[in-house]
Specification:
alpha/beta, Rossmann fold
């Protein structure tokens, strides 16, 4: 099959959505399909055209930035051109350009499949509000035109105000998750980088430092956890500086995190081997997200594949990894005391939450997820 994939940002941009799209594109390419990715040239230093691991990437110039979205006038021309060459049109939402790309698919009698990653919530302000309204309209038009809508879980779809009108089109497919192999030297290097001392208990969090991630609740929970486990400390991986739209949130958090001293450490963005080593060093990982901008939490499966249980917010979609594997606890969102109790429970009884990391890794492997997409695409052709 010739598959046209479109999304606003693609690698090397770093986010859960771009990681998902790249893993799926590579896995489909390895299964013999021809994949073209149409995306933004959000950084002028990136090549306009390239082949990344067998996937053709076409990046279009950005003429205007509106909040987290971009305006690319040439998307109309290139969208039509590549849609004509494709057998299937696959759009990742949220995306401003999704509506007319879906229309092109309908006009050309090509199957249109959307993957809806999460609800979009932008920072306060008129420009952000306007961008949110335009994006919301574009996504709804795309959903009406689509033949099928992929979501990570039915649980999230049924709770989403956006997806509820389109439940008849929803096809749940788990997200692709891949964790790098880890050697002893990788783990030793991570311990040195993070200054992990013998006997310390590592509580991990992997996210952007963003309002919807609920970082403050982990910061408030840590002193409560340390009353029971005095050697516990938090290691936070992911972007924590200059996060778009989150400057005020970072300033608000700064005194709370500073008060924790060396018991809270930022490690920044790690490469795949370092990230896998990080999860192997964690006694527990935490996902205290607050709302529907998180629909699953890929990092939960990454952690579980490395043997680290998870304490996560009991929210639609987010609760599914723990529910599916039994490797962790669910707690109410925005509740530091409940979060602390969940962490303490997992640390007190680790044998209850070991699960089967190898089975988790197999179930969510990009190869198996690509096969599920392949079946869906073939059913629509």
């Amino acid at each position: 099959m010739r598959i046209l994939t479109s999304l606003t940002y693609y690698r090397p941009h770093y986010s859960g959505l771009t990681i998902y799209a790249e893993r799926l594109a590579l896995a489909l390419s390895e299964r013999g399909h021809s994949i073209s990715v149409l995306t933004s040239r959000y950084d002028a230093n990136l090549p306009a055209r390239e082949v990344r691991d067998g996937v053709q990437v076409v990046r279009l110039p950005v003429r205007l930035r509106v909040s987290k979205g971009v305006v690319m006038p040439s998307m109309v021309l290139w969208g039509w051109k590549l849609a004509r060459q494709a057998d299937v049109i696959h759009l990742h939402l949220p995306q401003l350009d999704a509506s007319y790309l879906a229309l092109f698919g309908r006009l050309l009698h090509k199957p249109v499949v959307l993957t809806y990653h999460c609800d979009l919530r932008l920072p306060e302000g008129f420009i952000h509000w306007s961008a949110n309204q335009v994006s919301h309209l574009a996504n709804h038009l795309a959903a009406k035109l689509a033949h099928a809508i992929v979501t990570n879980t039915r649980d999230y779809a049924e709770a989403s105000a956006f997806l509820r009108p389109y439940l008849s089109k929803v096809r749940p497919i788990y997200p692709p998750v891949q964790v790098a192999a880890v050697s002893l030297s990788d783990r030793l290097a991570l311990r040195q980088k993070a200054n992990i001392q013998p006997g310390q208990i590592i509580i991990g969090m992997a996210a952007r430092l963003a309002t919807e991630k609920g970082v403050e609740y982990l910061a408030q929970a840590l002193p409560l956890v340390r009353q029971r486990f005095p050697t516990a400390r938090v290691l936070f991986i992911g972007q924590h500086e200059n996060v778009f739209g989150e400057a005020a949130y970072a300033r608000r958090l700064a005194p709370l995190l500073a008060a924790l001293g060396e018991n809270w450490q930022f490690l920044g963005i790690l490469d795949e081997s370092e990230k896998a080593a990080f999860f192997h060093e964690c006694a527990v990982t935490v996902l205290p997200s607050l709302n529907s901008t998180e629909s699953f939490g890929l990092v939960q499966i990454e952690a579980m594949s490395c043997g680290a249980p998870v304490v996560a917010s009991d929210l639609p979609g987010i609760r599914q990894p723990v529910t599916l594997t039994g490797m962790g606890r669910l707690v109410p969102p925005a509740d530091a005391h409940a979060l602390a109790e969940g962490i303490i429970e997992v640390l007190s009884h680790p044998e209850r939450y070991r699960g089967d990391p190898a089975a988790v890794a197999r179930q969510f492997s990009p190869k198996n997820i690509a096969a599920a997409y392949e079946t869906l695409f073939a059913s629509l052709l």
